[in-house]
Amino acid sequence: GIVQRNADSIGLNADEGTSDIEIDHLEVADNGYAGIVVRTYPRCFNKYNRDTWMLRNVHLHDNYVHDVGGEAFYVGTSHFDQGDKEVDPFDYANSCPGEMASQAELRHIKIHHNIIENIGLDGIQLGGGVEGVEVYNNVIRFYAQKQSYGHVGGLQINPGTTGKFYNNWIESDAYDENGTAVQYVGGIGGPTDIYNNVIIGSPTAILTLGRMGGADTPLNIINNTIVNSGSPYFFFCHSGDFIIEHTVKNNIFAGYENIGDNYWADWSKIFSGSAQNCPINGQIYEPSNAPDAFKFASNSYAENGVDLDFVDLAQNDFHLTANSSAVGAGENFLSLTPTDYDGNDRTIPVDNGAFVFRPSSINAIPAFLLLLTQNPE
Question: With a threshold of 0.90, does the pTM exceed it?
Answer without folding.
Answer: yes
